[in-house]
Amino acid sequence: MTTTVEATARSRTAPQRPGFFKRLFAEYGQEIVVLAAIVMLFAIVTMVNPRFISANNLTTIFSGNAYIAVAAIGMAMVIVTGNIDVSVGALIGVLATISGSLAVAGYPIWFAWLAPVVVGMAVNAIIGILVAYARIPSIVVTLGALSILRGGLISVTGGTWITDLPPDYLIAQKQIFGLPVPLVFMVVLTLLAAFWMRYTAFGRSLYAIGGNAEAALATGIPIARRTVAVFVIHGAFAGLATILFATQLQVIQSTVPPNLELTVITAAVIGGVSILGGSGTVIGSTLATILFATIGSALIFVNVSAYWLRAVIGLLILATVLADMLRRRGRGA
Amino acid sequence: MKLKSLIRHETFLAVLLVVVLIVLSFQSDRFFTIDNLLNQGRLMTEIGLIAIAMTFVIATGGIDLSVGSILGLTAILTGVFWQNVGLPLPVAATAAIAAGTFAGFVNGVIITRFRVPPLIATLATLALYRGLAEGISQARSVRGYPEWFYVLGQKDVLGVPTQLWILLFAAVVASVILAYTTWGRTVYAVGSNEVASRFSGLSVEKTKLALYTASGFAAAVAAVIFVSRVSTTRSDMGTGIELDAITAVVLGGTSIFGGRGTIIGTIIGLCLIQALKNGLSLAGIKGDGTIMLIGAVLILAILASNLFERSGTRT
Amino acid sequence: MRNVVLSALLALSFSTSLSNAQSVWTGGDDLPTNPLACDATPATAAAKPYDGGQPTNAPDRKGKTIKVVDVPKLVGIGYFNATSKGIADAAKEMGSMDAKTDGPSKANIDDQITLIDNYITSGVDGILFAANDPVAIAPVLKKALGAGINVVGYDANSSPDARQWFVNQAEFNGIAKAMVDSMAAEIGDEGAFAIVTSTFTTPNQARWIAEMAAYQTKCHPKMKWLETVEAQEDNILSFNQSNTLINKYGDELKGIFGMTSVATPAAADAVTQAKKCGSVAVVGLATPNAMKPYVGAGCVKSVVLWNPVDLGYAAAYVLRAVADGTLAPGATSVKAGKLGDLSVINGSEILLGAPTVFNKDNIGNFDF
Question: Which residues cross the membrane (chain B) (predicted)?
Fold first, then answer.
């Protein structure tokens, strides 16, 4: 509990030191709320069971869900532009099957890794064109794409699992510099995307498109082309997420992971990406993914009755959302 | 212009539905029979009720993703109130519907009082309500309802499935409200321009609160009908139904950005999806092929209607 | 926010105490259990009269080619691919059955009901099903019987009066005994273990867990059940949940039961990647193909499963026999092609046989 008190004390003293902290809080408010929630959870659960912060459990929390975080990066970008994609879960299922089949069929490993990225970009290019040029709302296009991809996956594979994957292919089980590959993927991609969105003209234009499309058009931003580009980039992230997803185990289940799209969207929006577009960062979406993973693991560690697990997860998500809203309102007053 | 384009989409969709019905009846002689069509009506009632309420919500520019979870929660409560608490079944069902309606009201409060965007608010309650359903039920099913209860979900009244009457009634009432009352116009106004509506003195917050409550109510009624149709309760009931309902609503021409949409469009959209599911199955096409086709129809229908609309604007 | 979190934590501790008060394992159902004897004494089942349903005005299908649809719980998982293959094999062998498999893409009661309803309208002669929920599926199956269609279940039963026969892969208490005995053999009679299941609402899994709890209490009373976690039908989630269990209990955890063909390989992978092979045993229900890497590497010693190809095969033969009228209420056995005579149990069920325990020596012989 001491940590909680300390955290409160810190946030109370914040206003007395304007400048850096105020700016930080103004700009990364939601990220800080999510981070605080993660830290609080870690503190509380570790007191109950110190094994919670063992290296193994940290690996499980951070790298077992890294593919969700990577997919949420692309989703956050799409949502920042005022669009949405409900087909990403089905896409990842399809891409995993393509990648695994290529690896088993004896194609070079790099090709099996590259294929999901390229195919993901191609599929999302079509979605992006339908959204940007045919002017169909993104939720309609991606609801359609969800059905097509899910149905297509089952009719093509008939649901056969992919086994006998070559050991070199299983990159998610390897380590770089003593760190698990998924963790490195997640951190590097999040930072790259965050810098790109903040410091490049292209990246910043995404916020302009989502914030006020007419103004963006007036300032000469090619909205349609940028929208397609964002979907293509999102496709690339879905492909990268697929590499982690497909290589985590020695078998690939060629079905669409249940409710993956909802998990990814939830991570993006709880992380602070405004669903109306125009604000939010990918750091927030990654932190939110980590928050969910931490909650899931923490509740098992503190022996929450398994029947009530999901209710408590829901309550914690709602609490995070409301805390953010109260914070914003406090700032407004 | 707006009204004109609106009519255009629904007319186009109605024509498409007729074409689909004709084609499918040639594929299988068991498709276009009174029995089969009425039976399809029975199967689409739950999604239909939810989609009707969702039409209003989406017309204001909002969305409600928690309907599937409210359905699950209400179903569980119906069983728990009846068997574990010992209330008479009608009282139990009414209490459960009240609870489901309250769940919708809570959505409304979070959205209007705390100003949480609807998508985020209902994503959070989607997890919460499903969790409550699971926790309260302790994964137990409640079965063995009295025979009269099945009238609602499995029997006919005047030769038509009982629940289809409810759907028809809801559709008529909702159409009248949306098309002919001040309140209905408020819904469109809020969806077209929320800020302007607020300045022109419309009660935006009250309208929204009422809509999300109504959405909860619709999901709750659907839950009781669902329980009666399948004669058991499970905490995972209604999983994923939100996407099916939204598909029907947007196929029916309601703009996801708010400001336009009609009940008749939603109903045609629903019928089209149900006809495809059923007709293609009778024509020997497997479930996975059917869902692919429905996805394609959704995109193409909106695409076609966009093209019509644009060519209409030019002339 | 703090208040919310605090009250949530209070609620947690409250519910924890509640769950501790229960003596049964989490995830089991509340139906009566019937644990087998601890040694190999076979159970003596009391003879039960036929309790299945009958189709009304079924046409004479004897010897005619019949159109059959197979509706599994869901399509797209290895297990139901195997049953579907068995049905196709049997249909080909008999030459008088036109069978196809069509199921929901998610294990969803409503989608399954709608599919069956459509096939009733389309006029099939026979329906084979594996129910997502025994009660929810009953109305539509009764409708099928009412339309004169022959209805036979396999893998997951419905209420008995909603179908004619059910091909039982192995009795719940038989599976429970095989699972618990295998675990006890690996981790000893005082070891602690945890369970990874799909969801608590899945009927077969809930039944097995309840029977396992009863059998463990009776025959291995000193084994310790730690907890049961849900992991849907999602292999990455199963993997993460297994890891969390390993991390939480450390050396106390000696074994993990995988209750589904999705959870078991994922649990084995978690144990492999945590380098706990040999110190954490994995016992579970799984298809051999998915388990070959782990069994081959010696990380998993035994996998319990009936042969799902045989299950589908037997179901198809039973349906043929029902349509021909050779399997009628009161029969004590039925001929099922290469499987020979299968016996009738529990009134209206046909028993496939004892579950197979796959190990390093024989797993290579199976391909499904």
Answer: 49-82, 89-110, 116-133, 164-183, 209-227, 248-277, 289-308
What residues does CATH 3.40.50.2300 cover in chain C? 66-170+307-353, 171-305
Q: Which helix (H) or strand (E) holds A176?
A: strand A175-176
Say if CB B18 and CB B232 are below 8 A apart: no
**Interface contact C277, partner A, CB < 8 A:** no
Q: Please, which residues have CB within 8 angstroms of residue B237's CB and are 6 or more apart in sequence?
A: B71, B72, B75, B76, B223, B226, B227, C109, C110
Which chain B residues in 245-264 lie under 8 Å from chain A, judged by CB atoms?
Answer: 246-247, 250, 255-257
- What's the CATH architecture for C171-305? 3-Layer(aba) Sandwich (3.40)
A138-181 residue pLDDT tens: 988 999 999 999 889 888 887 778 888 998 999 999 888 889 99
Q: Do C223 and C39 contact (CB within 8 A), yes or no? A: no
Identify which of C5, C232, C247 has the shortest CB distance to residue A54: C247
Question: Hey, are the CB atoms on B141 and C118 less than 8 Å from each other?
Answer: no
- A8 lies in a domain? no
Residue C348 in contact with residue C200, Cβ under 8 Å? no
Looking up tokens 């139904």 gives: B241
Asked whether the beta carbons of A69 and A286 are under 8 A apart, the reply is yes
Q: Are B131 and A140 an interchain contact pair (Cβ–Cβ within 8 Å)? A: no
Residue that is written with structure tokens 């649809």 in the block: C69
Buried b (16+ CB within 10 A) or exposed e, C160-180: bebbbbbbbbbbbbbbbbbbb
Sign, Cα dihedral of A74, A79, A80, A82: positive
Is B15 in the A-facing interface, judged by CB distances under 8 Å? no
- Cβ–Cβ contact C243 with A under 8 A: yes
Domain hosting residue A178, numbered range: 67-288
CB contact under 8 A, A64 and C229: no
Residue C119: which of B222, B74, B282 has the closest Cα?
A: B282
Dump pLDDT digits (tens) for C70-86: 999 988 777 888 899 99
Q: How far apart are CA A203 and CA C120, in angstroms?
A: 55
Burial A221-233 (b: 16+ CB within 10 A, else e): bebeebbbbbbbb
Residue C28 to chain B, least CA–CA distance (Å): 9
Query: Residue A8: how many CB atoms within 10 A of its CB?
Result: 12
pLDDT of residue C242: 95
Q: How many domains does chain A have?
A: 1
Min Cα distance A51 → chain C (Å) is 6
Can you tell me which residue has the tokens 């099903």? Answer: C129
Q: Whole-angstrom Cα distance, residue A142 to residue A172?
A: 28
Whether A136 and chain B come into contact, CB under 8 Å, resolves to: yes
C66-170+307-353: which CATH topology? Rossmann fold (3.40.50)
Q: What does the pLDDT look like over C212-250, one tens digit per residue?
A: 999 999 999 999 999 999 888 888 999 999 999 999 999
pLDDT-based confidence at A22, cuts 50/70/90? confident
Q: Which chains touch B (3 or more CB pairs under 8 A)?
A: A, C
CB pairs under 8 A between A and B: 142
Which residue stretches of chain C have pLDDT < 70?
Answer: 1-24, 42-46
| Poorest-pLDDT segment among A271-275, A309-313, B1-5 | B1-5
Within-domain flag for A37: no
**Distance between CA atoms of B226 and B163, rounded to whole angstroms?**
10
Contact C123 B36 (CB under 8 A): no
Question: From start to end of chain B, where are the E strands?
Answer: 156-157, 160-161
Q: For tokens 């989502």, what's the residue?
A: A210
Q: Quote ipTM for the complex.
A: 0.87
* Tokens describing residue C150: 């022959």
Asked if residue A247 has pLDDT above 70, the reply is yes
d(CA A299, CA A308): 10
